[in-house]
Write a structure and sequence with these properties.
3 helices; two-stranded antiparallel sheet; about 150 residues; mainly alpha
Length: about 150
């Protein structure tokens, strides 16, 4: 008969594998959404991704402290856990790259908009000069607000 610790470890290992599979699924969906510029889908997945991230970190911390639990796995269970973990790692890397790329692209777009706006303002702006008459105004001295959610 198995003791209570073995049953608890078996349950934790099953939970860990479920979290890995679920997290992989969410990352896969988010990666597709990022590739398709589907911001709404990325937003929809955010809460689920956050919860799974917390659960995953918690499980990793547990198994770091209780490595003996992993020794109770059969070879088939070890291979499945390894396969799922490697797939999750690959998805993490892809997700990281896609997020960085999208953030860089957003910065570039916002920068282009700001530069174009500065040029338009400078070409059309006038103000009072030192002599009290209208003079060209430098856009460096004008205020501009940028909505960062673009």
């Amino acid at each position: 008969m198995e003791n209570a610790d073995d049953l608890d470890f078996a349950k934790k290992i099953d939970d860990y594998n479920d979290v890995i599979v679920s997290f992989s699924d969410v990352l896969r969906q988010e990666n597709v959404a990022l590739q398709n510029f589907d911001v709404k889908k990325v937003e929809e997945l955010f809460e689920q991704k956050s919860k799974l991230s917390v659960a995953y970190r918690s499980m990793v911390a547990f198994f770091i402290k209780h490595q003996e639990a992993l020794k109770t796995l059969s070879e088939q269970e070890k291979e499945l856990l390894k396969k799922n973990s490697l797939e999750l790692e690959t998805l993490f890397k892809e997700n990281d790259l896609l997020l960085k790329t999208r953030m860089e692209a957003s910065k570039t777009v916002v920068g282009a908009i700001v530069d174009a706006t500065k040029m338009a303002v400078e070409a059309q702006a006038t103000s009072y000069g030192a002599q009290g008459t209208y003079a060209r105004m430098s856009s460096r001295n004008s205020a501009m607000a940028v909505n960062k959610t673009l």
